[in-house]
Amino acid sequence: MELYKKHELYVIKKALNTYFLGKDKENIYDSYIVKGIDSKVLAGFEVGDLVECYFYIGKDKKEHITLQKPIIEMGEIGLLKCQGIGKVGAFFDLGYEKDVMMPFIEKVTDFHEGDKVLVKLYLDKTGRPCVTQKIKKHLEEVEKYQLGAEVDGTIYMIDDEQGVFVALEDKYFGLILTNEMMPNMKVGDKLRVRVTKVREDGRYNVTASKRIHVQMDEDSEKLLKFIEENGGFLAFDDKTDSEVIKQNFSMSKRAFKRAIGRLLKNKKITLEAEGGIRLNK
Fold first, then answer.
1. What is the rounded distance in angstroms from the CA atom of residue 22 to the CA atom of residue 71?
2. CATH no. for 7-66
3. CA-to-CA distance for 45 and 50, rounded, in angstroms?
4. Model confidence, pTM
5. One fold for both 7-66 and 139-207?
6. Of 88, 220, 256, 270, which has the fewest beta carbons less than 10 angstroms from its beta carbon?
């Protein structure tokens, strides 16, 4: 039976601590036999019943049956929690007694025990279940979203030169460009993003920022609060380096300048000639 995939099988026959399961309830000769401890999983099922079940590898390295769905199924991409890191790889919780391993060769970014990492479940050349962090090539490239669409995604990689890589709905390729990156973003974060460009190759440029008029209101309020909390003066202005702005205010320089413009228009602040922002009394 294929591991970590849902199977719908009929109970063809049952005897003492033994169940015969198959896709054809009339064909006992092409059935899967469940006996011993595993038969307790099927207690309560009668002949003719349809069973939704999964098969997994236990700590004894043998195949077992369960009615419990794995956190992600074979071939799927999803977030798994790192249970520990050993000499040859890291181990992730799939929802069963035995964790699944990520060989170090399949590791892309740094993570620690307890972190949630976006991975794909696969079988290696020996038939052993493993997970990989190399999911970029497995993300689908399709024209699914329109410009401006809001989508849930998971950050799976951050590159200071290219941007933040986001798996949209954990299936499709999304990229937050470097000028939209924020210092608090980290691998494994779930976030709501907006499509800013639909590319010809089926990939998407996205942003975690809200629509300009909404974002401008929030950014100007954030900036005003910063000024108030710093005694009515900030030693920053529209000439401040973009990286400094990003580190201190978690917004891009463009957003920072828009926020300054909004506060100037509302006569909340004054730009000092020698540099800095002063709160108006």
1. 25
2. 2.40.50
3. 8
4. 0.69
5. yes
6. 88
Q: What is the pLDDT of residues 14-44, one digit of tens each?
A: 888 888 998 888 778 778 888 877 888 888 8
**Contact by Cβ (8 Å): 187, 158:** yes
Give the other-Cβ count within 10 Å of 9's Cβ.
Answer: 23
- Per residue in 193-212, pLDDT tens? 999 999 888 899 998 876 66
Fold of 212-279: Arc Repressor Mutant, subunit A (1.10.10)
Nearest CA-CA partner of 168 in 148, 197, 187, 141: 141
The alpha carbon torsion through 248, 249, 255, 258 (nearest 10 deg) reads -100
The CATH superfamily label for domain 139-207 reads Nucleic acid-binding proteins (2.40.50.140)
Structural contact between residues 147 and 98, judged by C-beta atoms closer than 8 angstroms:
no
CATH number of 77-136: 2.40.50.140
